[in-house]
């Protein structure tokens, strides 16, 4: 694609986060939202209607239909994590650039397959991790890396939480192992781990202590881990 060419995006899956990304695509100067696909045409049309897109985007009742559209240059994929491998690889094989929602895969092996598919088909891969790619994050890294200003990092405490309603705990895909097997760790916990590794220049800890299973309470589910590095914590 030419550098000044408008990227025509398709969205595969009408998850809640897709509303925000659809708005961002529309606001980006070199992007346009071209199509939306769900498992049924009714869901795709409802998503378009609820987000002021009716009449301005194509709607498809299957993911395959969107991937077969030659006018779609790139796809944003906010599907359950268990579906990422299949649809991300297929998107790459259809020569679609890929913006994949986090967590990108269930494990490193699956992510390697996705990256290999993108590389072998000459398409770009991008994850949906906003904070990691934000200019403020780069500026913060400059600040904490300057020991004269910040000192040595000895302890890092990183926490990520969200309110969980009864409906969320009973029916959300993030508490269903067959759809999002990583649970609280994949949804929020990896933010904490990622921030720690980011602050430590991605040096791996020498020891990790973690709960053997998620803690389930009336307030929701949680996970806990301690990372130990040589010389500090």
Automatic annotation (TrEMBL):
GO terms for molecular function: nucleotide binding. It comes from the Eukaryota. This is Gfo/Idh/MocA-like oxidoreductase N-terminal domain-containing protein. It holds the Pfam family GFO_IDH_MocA. Transmembrane segments: none annotated. InterPro entries: Gfo/Idh/MocA-like_OxRdtase_N, NAD(P)-bd_dom_sf. Residues 7-126 form the Gfo/Idh/MocA-like oxidoreductase N-terminal domain.
């Amino acid at each position: 694609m030419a550098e000044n060419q408008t990227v025509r995006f398709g969205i595969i899956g009408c998850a809640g986060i897709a509303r925000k990304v659809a708005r961002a695509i529309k606001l980006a100067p070199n992007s346009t939202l071209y199509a939306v696909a769900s498992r049924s045409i009714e869901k795709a049309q409802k998503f378009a209607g609820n987000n002021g897109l009716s009449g301005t985007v194509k709607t498809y009742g299957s993911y395959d239909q969107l991937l077969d559209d030659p006018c779609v240059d790139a796809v944003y994929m906010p599907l359950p994590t268990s579906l990422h491998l299949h649809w991300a690889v297929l998107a790459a094989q259809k020569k679609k650039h890929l913006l994949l929602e986090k967590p990108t895969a269930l494990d490193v092996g699956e992510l390697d397959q996705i990256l290999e598919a993108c590389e072998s088909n000459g398409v770009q891969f991008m994850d949906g991790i906003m904070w990691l790619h934000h200019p403020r994050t780069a500026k913060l890294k400059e600040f904490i890396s300057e020991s004269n200003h910040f000192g040595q990092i000895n302890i890092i405490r990183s926490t990520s939480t969200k309110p969980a309603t009864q409906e969320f705990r009973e029916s959300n895909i993030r508490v269903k192992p067959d759809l999002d097997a990583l649970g609280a760790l994949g949804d929020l916990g990896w933010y904490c781990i990622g921030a720690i590794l980011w602050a430590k220049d991605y040096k791996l800890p020498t020891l990790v202590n973690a709960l053997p299973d998620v803690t389930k309470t009336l307030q929701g589910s949680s996970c806990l881990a301690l990372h130990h590095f040589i010389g500090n914590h």
